Each structure stands twice: as C-alpha cells, then as structure tokens.
C-alpha cells in the first residue's frame, strides 16, 4: 500500500512474523518450507553418500570409529527444520522427508535410513521441547545436534553397524559422533539458518524477524 505525504511516496514496511510472539498453528508455508529444505538435503545426502562418504571411509580405514565424524551431515535437516519452523514435529518431519528422498535416490543402507531419520529428528525435538520451544540460538542447536547423534548411535548404530566393536571403540565412535553433531549439525545448521535469514528468504518466519530486528538495532 502506498500513500503520499508532502509529495513523497511512502511505503509500508515489509510484513514479518514477530520473533518472540506465540506461534500460531502450522501454516501451509511452514509445511512447504520444511518440505523444500528436506528435499534439498535429501539430494545432498545422496551426493554425500555417493561421492564423499567412500572417501571418508577410506581415510579412516586405519581407525574406523573416526569415520563417525561425518555423522553430522545427516543430522543437519532436523536442526534447520526446528530453527526455521519452530513448532513441535518440525525436526522429525524435515529429517524424515530428507531420508525418504535419500532412499528414493539410492543409498547403501536402504530403507534403514528411515529409522535413522526418525531417531535423529527425535533427538532434536527433545532438546527444543525441554526448552519449551522458546530458545533457538546456537546453544540449543548444538545440544540438539549432540542428542540427535547420541540417539542415532546408542539406539541404532552400535547394534546395527558396529556390533563387533569393543566398548572402548564404541565410546570413541560415540564421542566422534557427538563432536560431529555439535559442530556440523549444530553450529552448521544454525549458521545456515542465519545465512538464509540474511538473504531475506525467511522473512515469513521468526528467524527472519530476529535478523531484521538485530540489523535495525545496529543501524
């Protein structure tokens, strides 16, 4: 809407979702955005599975538990989905859709990626639920990534992928996964969300408003 005052054209500021106001129920744009993010990450998963993970496996062949340092790549969608949509279920939805895309495109683990996707999403959900879905900074993202990694490893990978490992190796495997969950999924997911907000792609979400408010205060 435009109007004139003293001969000048005045435009209303863009509409943003308040950063701290209670969120309404799920909107169509929430579902669409979560799906788009998930599909993009599903393609990334396929590319990583096909071209990068074999290299990681070869590099860490001398001490396989260190290969779990790559785990965070598969956890990012849950963190990003939670940070953008900010509603219960966002992490699980985003992670599961990404896992389905990975499955459809082809991977070495088959349909088991769906079980992994569920556990990874639940880990992030638990952290944000404990925080009552009110905190969405780097620390909650890191904690979400770490719990996501812990559930994936302790509830699934120890028993399915590395059952023959000694407990010493299993704990190193877990430590590597926690580091990856914190750095790649947690800090990486938070940084990606900030970058999307900076590009104005998230103006319809609280994350975009937070960036807008911060820039206004600095001006």
Describe the overall structure.
The chain is mainly alpha-helical and 219 residues long. The chain has one domain (24-218). Helices cover 66% and strands 4% of the residues. The chain is built from seven helices and two strands. It has helices at residues 28-59, 76-85, 90-105, 112-130, 138-160, 167-198, 206-218; strands spanning 2-5, 8-11. Strands 1-2 form a two-stranded antiparallel sheet. It starts with a strand and ends with a helix. 40% of the residues are buried. Mean pLDDT is 90; it is low at 1-15.
Number of strands: 2
Structural class by SSE content: mainly alpha
Major sheet summary line: 2 strands, antiparallel
Overall helicity = 55-70%
The dominant shape is: globular
Rg over CA atoms: 20 Å
H-E string: EEHHHHHHH
Distance between the termini: 25 Å
Helical stretch tally: 7
Stretches where pLDDT is under 50 for at least 5 consecutive residues are 1-15
Give the strand order, joined by hyphens, for the main sheet.
Answer: 1-2
Strand content: under 5%
Layout of SSEs?
Elements: E1 2-5, E2 8-11, H1 28-59, H2 76-85, H3 90-105, H4 112-130, H5 138-160, H6 167-198, H7 206-218
Antiparallel strand pairs: 1-2
Quick recap of the structure?
The model is unreliable at 1-15 (pLDDT under 50). The protein is mainly alpha-helical and 219 residues long. The chain is globular.
Notable characteristics:
single chain; 219 residues; mainly alpha; 66% helix; globular; disordered N terminus
